[in-house]
Design a protein that fits this description.
The structure holds 3 protein chains of 3 kinds.
Chain A: H1 2-31, H2 39-57, H3 61-92, H4 97-119, H5 143-147, H6 152-170, H7 172-182, H8 184-189, H9 194-220, H10 232-242, H11 247-269, H12 277-295
Helix pairs in contact in A: 1-6, 1-9, 1-10, 1-11, 2-3, 2-4, 2-9, 2-10, 3-4, 3-9, 6-7, 7-9, 10-11, 10-12, 11-12
Chain B: E1 10-20, E2 23-34, E3 38-43, H1 49-56, E4 64-69, E5 72-74, H2 79-84, E6 87-90, H3 102-118, H4 131-145, H5 160-173, E7 178-182, H6 190-203, E8 208-213, H7 216-222, E9 225-230, E10 233-239, H8 245-253, E11 271-281, E12 287-297, E13 301-305, H9 312-319, E14 327-332, E15 335-336, H10 342-347, E16 350-353, H11 357-361, H12 368-372, E17 383-384, E18 387-388, H13 390-403, H14 420-433, E19 438-442, H15 450-465, E20 469-473, H16 477-483, E21 486-491, E22 494-500, H17 506-513, H18 519-522
Parallel strand pairs in B: 3-8, 3-9, 6-7, 7-8, 13-20, 13-21, 16-19, 19-20
Antiparallel strand pairs in B: 1-2, 1-4, 4-5, 9-10, 11-12, 11-14, 14-15, 17-18, 21-22
Chain C: H1 2-30, H2 35-43, H3 50-75, H4 83-98, H5 106-135, H6 139-159, H7 188-191, H8 204-221, H9 223-233, H10 235-240, H11 245-272, H12 283-293, H13 298-316, H14 329-349, H15 351-372
Classes of the chains: A mainly alpha, B alpha/beta, C mainly alpha.
């Protein structure tokens, strides 16, 4: 039984990182008033770009470390770039964000898949970034394996929880972003450049989604496929609602979803072969719906102008 | 930070023109304000006052014309530019972010002002909000002018009057040396208005102010000079003392205003609508209506006076079935309304002119003819065997547009593209054509030009004389006093008192609206 | 003014098409394809023979059915991105019925199977509607989750209860047995023997045309459709007008789901003749593009669906025409088209931009005119 729980957690925690990063990024987007349903596409591009650079350059030892790092940076940049493209459509032109998000999703996943087929082709893997064991702490029985022998990006994703929280609460930029998401007119009258702030938030949030994708290809699976992201982008958007825009809540949601997924993997691994695995695979999705039902019952705390374009000279 | 900034000796705008699709909002307007002066900018809704000020603030860019500050031409591309020159505006709808605290709102504005003024010093306060400096600044300003606020309260927790103080403090903290106040008294009680006027007088020793209003008594009490706009054009510029209120009103509207239209009610019948102990929750879960009692007879207009946010909206929504009630009863002509759906209430004979006519009164993207049958589309009058009777619908639209003088290119036009007055006429036409027993009219003439407003008022009075009970909800004291046969004052979800038309006056109503019940001693 | 509006609209549309083509050209070049050849295969090759046109129409059928469904929802204020799931659930229920009708006469069996497909899709579509109206769960999220759930459920059904015994235990993809031939939708050249024998597209096209007409009549000529459109255009105005918005929202997405379910069923009865994996093939998403492109009008959806079927068929034919592009290219183009269309729509509907453009044109044309004079 203990084995089972350990397996369940050691699988579950790394699974949650991609969701956590993407969802935190999406929460920043939404705080500024932009609903980016195309997160999935951004993650795909991040995953492809993140893996492409180490694959093309190769190298070993110290060099590999730098190459991997530049892969991550490139993934973040690719994400930010896609975010800005989306920004032109929804901020500059004020297009409906749900539909435009679907467009971004198709574009991003399609482009990542096409580029992958063209430049890499078959199922090639990369060495990627491996887990590091933190000295001493990883020696703690059970906990050491579970919590202190993870991939550096896993630590990074969990560090981002307080970091995002601080950025949104304590920095002038965070204050501006929140003002733009709640009452852009007020922000504008105080001399804040609403559209610019939204671009910034969108680039930042999308860069995080790009990193989340790179985590999947470079750290988790160490390869790229068309279905690598497999709907994680959409789940990430749902988790923002689940977490009610609070980084800690989002972390809870990401862990809950990933643990549910780990549980179904563990159940499969422990061989209840007669039980159809499809029903296990679908449980996390059912869980998200159930959780969304309860999340919406709570007091509404979301950004009031979420999804509403802002144009100063438009007369309503 | 304001110490080294140059004082504003004069502000001039010359030949400003601004066009919007289909309208010229400002046409060739020039005015100037000197140091320590309070200029009144007077005009009806839609006269171009707000547009002109938004141009001064850099919110809109003018199509033609120039702005001069201390005789030097300036051009403002965004509010940031205007703020950097020391011009600050308190908008009619307060520009405060409701889920931030007072302190955070001020900090938000100040960071921008600071980072712009100091240029190089940006790095210092970029990473962290300097809470202590902001707090000190708030305290400094509030003690200088005697403006009391709690810096740690959230905006949504504080009253409208307090929000206005926060707006003022915020604007001053951002370094404003020239204040523009856009209809600052519209949401205040008469007593709060008096306080504000005192405050502005004190402030004018240190600042220049443009005071926008269409309330003539305030203008005469506060300002020495004024500028009157009508239909985007400047029609008068000069001393306030030279003209009587009636003269100013005439200049504002362009024709002699018949200030009183009401005639005594002739046809008052039995109780039509009786509301007993009605309790309703507001959006934030508090009791917006707290055991409210009110009865309205057939053939009379009861005006509901009160500062907005005291439960008017919730009352209208409860009566039309759009908002659930906690307890109490509502009876319309013998039929209980509580627990019924909006459709059932409509079929009981309830008519409703909603507050936000553009999004509640009409479906903007649908045509006029479709909007005119919105409430009756399922009835045999307009459909047969599950199909719409298009000819009847057309005919209905044509005759209603004629009777109610709806000016439109055709009945196929999207209702949302009409002007406010014509939209209101479409709504009124639909409601009256359904021959209701009772009508709730919420802010029926807000934002309309005088002609349309008069038309709407006449229709309401005719409707009353035909024996319909009307509840008129308005924040315009003059409208309420003029049209109503009785006036009920609402305060914090309760009816303070119901006055006969003959015993009501501005002062009495003002005291009641502020929540003082026993006003006999106070008067 | 009127004339300017027309020119302005045409100009924006033309410009957006050019922008989309330019971006596509850049991407194709990066992917190492000859841009002109690729465009030729995508836009011209599908018209090169009757057989190819038939192939295009076979793709157009499910696209237009889904597109019509999306229209109903969109007009009623719901963005239904659950088309995939609704197709799958519709077709699952249809397969259950189809595999069990036995020797029922064709005239009875086919409508029964189609109806069950609609019921399956409709019920699956009603779920996000109920979630939205009763629990305020955004349909954008719930439909995506329901898509995953539906696809898992379908693959279970294929793998276990409906599995064709002859492939059981084998390595092939799970699929059902072939449906009895009496359930197949006839091909056009069977239905009308006078037609060219290469007119091989199935009679689902007739279903699509009839459905488009019915939906048009329903949305624009009946009180229920009127109420749904009012609820979609302005929820608050509709609510105050006595329309039970919640019920109409559920009804709208239910009907939308029914159309998607029908699309899945028609695809199986017309093309595959058995249940197998990946029948939905992304139609749920491309249906959104089609609906948008068709101006959110059921009669506009038909030509839009044809247009996208052409692109889709062209992209699928890239390999046989020796153009080394992966099949994903279609997604890139679709995504691009969505982004460009929504932007162009906003520019067209934004009066302020149009007004400024008009004044700019007037000023410059006037100046040019004066100089000439």
């Amino acid at each position: 039984m203990l084995d089972f729980i350990v397996l369940f957690l050691t699988v579950g925690i790394p699974l949650s990182s991609a969701l956590l990063l993407a969802s935190l990024g999406e929460s920043v987007n939404q705080r500024s008033g932009i609903f980016n349903l195309g997160c999935e596409g951004v993650m795909s591009m991040g995953a492809f770009v993140g893996m492409m650079i180490p694959y093309a350059v190769g190298g070993s030892g110290k060099v590999a470390w730098y190459v991997n790092l530049s892969g991550l940076v490139a993934a973040a940049l690719a994400g930010a770039l896609l975010g800005l493209l989306f920004g032109v459509v929804v901020i500059r032109f004020g297009a409906p964000q749900g539909i435009a998000g679907i467009g971004l999703q198709l574009f991003g996943t399609g482009l990542a898949g096409s580029l992958y087929r063209h430049f890499i082709g078959g199922a090639e893997g990369v060495a990627g970034i491996n887990a590091i064991r933190i000295p001493l702490l990883s020696k703690i029985p059970i906990l050491g394996d579970m919590l202190f022998s993870c991939n550096p990006m896993v630590y990074f994703s969990f560090i981002m929880v307080p970091v995002i929280s601080l950025i949104m609460k304590k920095t002038p930029w965070g204050l501006r972003v929140r003002a733009c998401g709640t009452m852009p007119r007020a922000a504008d009258s105080m001399g804040i450049k609403v559209q610019r702030t939204r671009y910034e938030a969108l680039a930042f949030g999308s860069a995080m989604a790009g990193l989340a994708g790179a985590y999947m290809s470079l750290c988790y699976a160490k390869l790229f496929t068309d279905t690598l992201i497999g709907g994680r982008g959409f789940i990430a958007v749902a988790l923002v609602y689940f977490g009610q825009w609070s980084p800690v809540g989002i972390m809870g949601g990401a862990l809950l979803f990933s643990l549910a997924q780990a549980l179904q993997l563990a159940v499969q691994a422990y061989g209840f072969a007669t039980f159809p695995y499809e029903f296990l695979v679908m449980t996390p999705y059912v869980l998200v719906i159930v959780v969304l039902i309860f999340a919406s019952k709570r007091k509404h705390v979301g950004p009031a102008s979420l999804g509403k374009p802002f144009n100063r000279e438009m007369r309503v | 930070m304001t110490a080294h900034a140059e004082t504003i000796r004069s502000l001039r705008v010359e030949h400003i023109t601004k066009r919007f699709p289909g309208v010229i909002a400002c046409s060739d307007i020039s005015l100037s304000v000197g140091q320590g002066e309070i200029l009144a900018l007077v005009g009806e809704n839609g006269a171009g006052k707000t547009t002109l000020m938004n141009i001064l603030m850099g919110l809109y860019t003018p199509d033609e014309g120039k702005i001069y500050l201390n005789d030097e031409p300036v051009s403002f591309r965004s509010p940031a530019d205007a703020l950097a020159c020391g011009i600050g505006m308190v908008h009619q709808q307060y520009m405060l972010v409701p889920d931030l605290t007072v302190l955070e709102n001020v900090a938000l504005g100040m960071q921008n002002a600071l980072s712009m003024e100091e240029g190089k010093g940006r790095g210092r306060n970029r990473m962290k909000t300097d809470v202590r400096a902001v707090r000190t600044k708030i305290e400094e300003i509030s003690s200088l002018y005697g403006l009391k606020v709690d810096p740690d309260a959230y905006i949504w927790q504080i009253s409208v009057g307090e929000q206005q103080r926060v707006e003022l403090i915020k604007t001053l903290c951002m370094g404003a040396r020239f204040l523009i106040l856009d209809e600052p008294t519209s949401a205040l009680t008469p007593q709060e208005t008096d306080d504000l006027i005192q405050l502005l007088r004190r402030m004018s020793s240190k600042l220049s102010i443009i005071f926008i209003s269409h309330k003539l008594s305030e203008v005469k009490a506060l300002c020495d000079t004024m500028v009157i706009l009508r239909g985007g054009q400047l029609v008068y510029s000069g001393k306030t003392a030279d003209h009587s209120a009636a003269d100013i009103a005439e200049l504002m509207t362009g024709h002699t205003v018949n200030l009183s239209m009401n005639r005594p009610a002739l046809n008052v019948g039995q109780d039509m609508l009786v509301v007993k102990d009605l309790c309703v929750r507001g959006d934030r879960g508090h009791l917006a209506l707290d055991h409210l009692n009110l009865s309205i007879r057939a053939g009379e207009i009861v005006g509901l006076a009160g500062v907005s946010g005291n439960g008017q909206r919730e009352l209208a929504e409860a009566l039309t079935g759009l908002r659930g009630i906690v307890s109490g009863s509502m009876v319309l002509d013998g039929q209980e309304l509580q627990g019924k759906s909006p459709l059932d209430i409509i079929s009981c004979g309830m008519g409703y002119i909603p507050e936000e006519r553009n999004i509640e009164g009409i479906v903007p993207s649908m045509s006029i003819r479709e909007n005119l049958v919105l409430k009756d589309i399922g009835t045999p009058a307009f459909s047969r065997r599950g199909l719409l009777k298009n000819k009847t619908i057309d005919h209905n639209a044509k005759s209603l547009c004629e009777t109610f003088d709806v000016r439109c290119p055709g009945t196929e036009t999207a209702a949302g593209s009409l002007s406010g007055g014509n939209i209101q006429k479409v709504i009124l036409a639909r409601e009256i054509a359904r021959s209701p027993k009772f009508l709730i009219a919420v802010y029926p003439i807000r934002g309309l030009d005088m002609g349309a407003a008069e038309f709407i008022h006449r229709q309401l009075l005719d409707l009353r004389d035909s024996g319909v009970g009307i509840l008129l909800i308005s924040e315009e004291m003059e409208e309420v006093m003029d049209l109503s046969d009785r006036i009920a004052v609402i305060f914090k979800g309760k009816i303070q008192k119901v006055l006969e038309k003959s015993e009501a006056n501005q002062r009495k109503l003002g005291i009641l609206m502020a929540g003082v019940e026993e006003f006999d001693e106070a008067v | 003014m009127k004339r300017f509006k027309l020119w302005y609209r045409c100009g924006v549309v033309l410009l957006s098409v050019l922008v989309a083509l330019a971006i596509a050209a850049v991407i194709l070049t990066v992917l190492g394809a000859n841009v002109l050849d690729t465009f030729r295969v995508i836009f011209v090759y599908p018209f090169s023979s009757i057989k190819n046109i038939s192939g295009v129409i076979n793709i157009m059928i499910p696209l237009s059915l889904v597109g019509i469904g999306i229209c109903i929802a969109y007009r009623s204020g719901i963005v239904n991105i659950g088309g995939e799931g609704q197709m799958i659930m519709g077709l699952t229920l249809a397969l259950v019925v189809a595999l069990n009708v036995g020797e029922m006469p064709r005239a009875l069996a086919i409508p029964l199977v189609l109806l069950s497909g609609m019921i399956g899709g409709g019920v699956w579509g009603a779920i996000p509607g109920i979630l939205k109206t009763r629990f305020q769960v955004s349909e954008l999220l719930s439909t995506v989750m329901l898509n995953y759930i539906a696809s898992q459920f379908y693959s279970y059904c294929l793998r276990v209860p409906m599995l064709d015994p002859s492939v059981a235990g084998g390595s092939g993809d799970p699929q059902t047995v072939r449906l009895s031939e009496s359930l197949w939708l006839s091909r056009m050249n069977q239905l009308f023997p006078s037609l060219d024998k290469n007119m091989r597209f199935h009679s689902g096209i007739l279903i699509a045309i009839v459905l488009a007409l019915i939906v048009f009549l329903f949305m624009w000529k009946t009180p229920a459709g009127f109420k749904m459109r009012a609820a979609g255009a302005s929820e608050r105005a509709a609510r105050y007008g006595g329309i039970n918005v919640k019920n109409y929202v559920v009804l709208a997405i239910l009907l939308s789901g029914a159309c998607c379910g029908l699309a899945g069923t028609v695809e199986v009865l017309g093309v595959h003749h058995r249940g197998l994996g990946n029948v939905s093939g992304g139609y749920g998403f491309s249906g959104i593009v089609v609906a948008l492109f068709g101006g959110l009008h059921p009669l506009g959806v038909l030509p839009a669906a044809f247009f996208f079927a052409v692109i889709s068929y062209g992209c699928n034919s890239l390999q046989i025409n020796k153009i080394p592009l992966p099949g994903n290219t279609i997604d890139v183009l679709m995504g691009l088209v969505i982004l460009v269309i929504v932007s162009a729509q906003m520019i067209i509907s934004n009066k302020y931009i149009m007004y400024r453009a008009e004044r700019w044109v007037r000023a410059h044309l006037l100046r040019a005119g004066k100089e000439r004079a």
